[in-house]
Amino acid sequence: MLTDFSDVILLLTAAFIAGALNAVAGGGSFLTLPALVFTGIPPVVANATGTVALLPGYISGAFGFREDLKAPPGLSLVSLAIISIVGGAIGAVLLIFTNDQVFRQIIPWLLLLATGLFAFGPMILNKFKQDSEVTTSFVKAGLGMFSVAIYGGYFNGGLGILLLALLGLLGQTNLNAMNGVKNVVSALLTAIAVLIYAWGDVIAWSQALIMMVAATIGGYLGARVARRIPATVFRMCIVIMGLIMSILFFINS
Questions:
Q1: Which residue segment(s) compose the domain that 106 sits in?
Q2: Of 56, 76, 65, 31, residue with least CA distance to 187
Q3: Fewer CB near the last or first residue (10 Å), C or N of the chain?
Q4: How confident is the model over 211-247, as pLDDT tens digits?
């Protein structure tokens, strides 16, 4: 249970800003994971709890793009859902069986990878869009989506950029359809991961619930404020934040 008022304020603030960031450009995990670790939550539990807190945002995002939803070339919506659930489940099981000390040493590398993906994501996506000839098979699409789903079930940071890059590589060009698939895959793999986290007893529920409320409010307000602030400003702040968090975890790992 949460007893320290300063910890409650820190988690509420981190979740609120994370929800706003995810509504605009992503990167919320850069705040939720370090905040939970700072309050004394073990790294594996912190990662699982932060993922639970951000789940409502994925679900609402998927619902928002329901009219634009279209499977990428090589996959059907049914196969996409199955791959997302199975991959997310495998990633979640891997997390449960990861030792806290080992995960603490992995965290800075994962944060650095996620930061790099976030920083260079637009460049990667533009490169894929410029490819005029894209041939996609079920095996290619399935293996790509399966790999990203495992990553998402294990560590949520940078998941959105990975999914958009993969969808571009597979030949999907409609941005609304890409965002629809991204949110559906994120919601499915995160939902199954949360069930497995709960089964493995690696969720700090009191922290998760208050962060979930704050993240939902932050997501709504972030979407409203985003219209007045350039996306590049948000992106730059998230990249700087990711680098700082990576350095701090490298120092303390």
A1: 5-252
A2: 56
A3: N
A4: 999 988 887 777 666 556 666 776 677 778 778 878 8
User: CB–CB of 104/141 below 8 Å?
Assistant: no
**First-to-last CA distance in the chain?**
26
What count of other Cβ atoms lies within 10 Å of the Cβ of residue 39?
A: 18
Domain total of the chain: 1
Cβ contacts of residue 116 below 8 Å, gap of 6+?
Answer: none
What's the pTM?
A: 0.81
Q: Is 132 exposed, middle or buried (0-12, 13-18, 19+ CB in 10 A)?
A: exposed
